[in-house]
Write a structure and sequence with these properties.
With 571 residues, the chain is of the alpha/beta class. It has 2 domains: 190 residues, Aldehyde Dehydrogenase, Chain A, domain 1 (3-Layer(aba) Sandwich); 237 residues, Aldehyde Dehydrogenase, Chain A, domain 2, CATH 3.40.309.10. 42% of the residues lie in helices and 15% in strands. The protein contains 22 helices and 18 strands. The strands form 3 sheets. It has an 11-stranded mixed beta sheet, with helices on both faces. A 5-stranded parallel beta sheet has the order 6-5-4-7-8, with helices on both faces. Strands 16-17 form a two-stranded antiparallel sheet. The longest helix is centred in the N-terminal third of the chain and has 29 residues. The relative contact order is 0.14.
């Protein structure tokens, strides 16, 4: 692994920004075919650096190169990068050749409410293999009617801005693909040249990003910087920075916009920003998993237990889309069986260091917040330095609306359960939707788990719940991380937050079809999938499968496909 990289000096930062400023207009006027050629080179760089990047990620997280957990960093790093960039390349090629990004009138439908929904999954041939049986659509905001969306699609290329901008991207410290994809989004979807500041937690990414982004760096469209809070503050206040994008916490957002301490609190109370630049953001969520009561088979319980355990355990819970609150019906006879099955899966997994700063303190606060809290021990927990049990805070009273588990993102391997009074599945969906919207903090992502028999009998209630849930991504039966990593689907908070009540943030990223006026992404998948999805913590061939998936995002060959199917079937 690389040695720690020193912070950038203010002089180096100034020089980087001057280079970007001198090229901001050239980027806008650069012909689309040349932009695509640069992006293809970036895509190749993702594949070429994948092995080394994953190796460094494992070392940074205290894991060995032969760990079965490596699949998380293959999927959350090179695969997500390759998938999103690959879909964007295809969309831009279509725009160049056909005048549209690959979606047309046949992909649009009008919901009963009059809202427009655009089918974005499946669209590529590999979708039918990777997420067979899944569908995805992007729903647009209510003011968009009829075919208006077609005129507004790829608007940045149809009506380029008159003047360029320099964007500051403050990179996340958890998932290794976030910073790179935020830079690509700013460049190709918002037409802004970019300076990326790495988070000190994952500064190991710098040499890999530098190699991947080399074509854009050499042309003066991207610069990279290192440093902590002081360098971040200097950048945010710099005259040459026009816009800021942050992936992090709402507290960090408020520190940037209003400042810190008493002065910052007073500024926020009066909505008097210290930094009045446009700030887009993705800031986390207390993610609900709404478990609709039904009559499940033992195999279905086992499958969904692995599904939910994955949402809790992946990346030690350092995900903004981790399962945080399981919302269930109080009288559901299979509630205990599902929780027992989740406990069984979690206790079978290997212990791992909780690498993100502050995890132990956050974990303790949540464990101490409720008498029903449990510490689930993973395998070899005592022998792994820095490892924590997995927390499960059971049966938090839904009337205790200000409970810590409802109002704060734990950002460690920690989830809670709560039980709502409801007479049947239909009334439960209504009550659970109200609870998620009105009690839980944030609007980033939500999951609804519903078996096919119950779904058939509750179709209208399910559709109403999806319509009314105020979340930027809603995934039926599966983890909303799909919405982050598939590229054709958008990722970001539900629209409408203000800077003085930012919650999960403002704006969406990825959005490879270049849709405007996005409200939410909705993905639906089968209640039970065979073979198990590659992201499941119980998948026995996930590492081998993830490697093949990275290759498939770029230039798939028949042998990649053969090996992919083989690993999938043996998982």
């Amino acid at each position: 692994m690389n040695q720690a990289i020193p912070s950038s000096t203010y002089t180096e930062i100034d020089q980087s920004l001057e280079i970007l400023k001198s090229n901001e207009n050239r980027w806008i006027t650069l012909p689309l075919d040349q932009k695509i050629a640069l992006l293809r080179e970036v895509h190749q760089g993702v594949v070429d650096t994948a092995e080394a990047q994953v190796s460094d990620a494992l070392a940074a997280k205290g894991l060995s190169n032969d760990s079965r957990l490596a699949s998380e960093d293959w999927l959350g790093g090179p695969f997500a990068n390759g998938r999103v960039i690959g879909t964007l390349v295809e969309a831009l090629e279509s725009l160049l050749e056909h005048g549209h990004t690959g979606i047309g009138k046949r992909d649009a439908r009008t919901l009963p409410s009059g809202q427009i929904a655009i089918k974005v999954l499946p669209k590529r041939w590999i979708d039918h293999l990777l997420v067979s049986g899944f569908t995805g659509e992007v729903r647009l905001q209510a003011h968009i009617k009829g075919d208006e969306w077609r005129e507004r699609c790829a608007l940045v290329y149809k009506e380029p801005p008159a003047k360029g901008k320099v964007a500051l991207v403050l990179g996340a410290g958890n998932v290794p693909s976030i910073g790179l994809l935020d830079v690509i989004h700013k460049l190709y979807v918002e037409a802004q040249v970019c300076l990326l500041k790495f988070n000190p937690v994952n500064e190991y990414l710098e040499p890999h990003y530098r190699e991947i982004l080399k074509p854009l760096i050499e042309e003066g469209y991207v610069r990279l910087t290192m440093g902590g809070a002081s360098e971040g503050k200097y950048l945010c206040q710099h005259d040459l920075i026009d816009e800021i994008h942050i992936t992090g916490s709402d507290k960090t957002h408020d520190a940037i916009v209003y400042g810190v301490g008493e002065e910052g609190a007073l500024r926020k109370a009066n909505d008097d920003p210290a930094c009045d630049k446009r700030v887009t953001s993705e800031l986390g969520n207390v993610s609900p998993v709404i478990v609709v009561p039904g009559s499940w088979t033992q195999d279905e319980i086992k499958f969904q237990a692995a599904n939910i355990a994955t949402m809790m355990y992946n990346n030690v819970g350092f995900n903004c889309n981790a399962a945080r609150v399981l919302v269930m019906q109080k009288g559901w006879p299979q509630r205990r069986a599902l929780l027992d099955a989740i406990r069984e899966v979690l206790s079978s997994l290997e212990a791992r260091p909780s690498y993100y700063p502050g995890a132990a303190d956050r974990y303790q606060r949540f464990i101490n917040s409720h008498d029903g809290a449990e510490a689930i021990k993973t395998r070899s927990l005592e022998r792994v330095e820095g490892a924590l049990p997995i927390g499960l805070v059971v049966d938090v009273d839904p009337e205790e609306i200000d409970h810590l588990c409802f109002k704060e993102e734990a950002f460690c391997a920690m989830a809670a359960t709560t039980n709502l009074e409801a007479s049947d599945a239909q009334s439960f969906l209504k009550t659970a939707t109200q609870f998620a919207n009105d009690v839980l903090w944030g609007t980033l992502n939500a999951t609804i788990i519903i078996d096919p028999r119950t779904e058939k009998a509750s179709k209208d209630a399910l559709e109403k719940a999806v319509d009314e849930l105020r979340y930027g991504s809603i995934c039926i039966n599966h983890w909303p991380a799909l919405s982050y990593g598939l590229g054709s689907t958008t990722w970001g908070a539900y629209p409408g937050h203000t800077r003085d009540d930012i919650q999960s943030g403002v704006g969406v990223v990825h959005n490879t079809f270049l849709l405007e006026d996005v409200e939410k992404t909705v993905i639906s998948g089968p209640f039970k999938v065979w073979p198990h999805p590659p992201w499941f913590v119980t998948h026995k061939r996930s590492v081998e499968l993830a490697r093949e998936l990275v290759s498939m995002t770029h230039k798939p060959k028949i042998m990649n496909l053969v090996r992919l199917i083989s690993h999938a079937l043996r998982g």
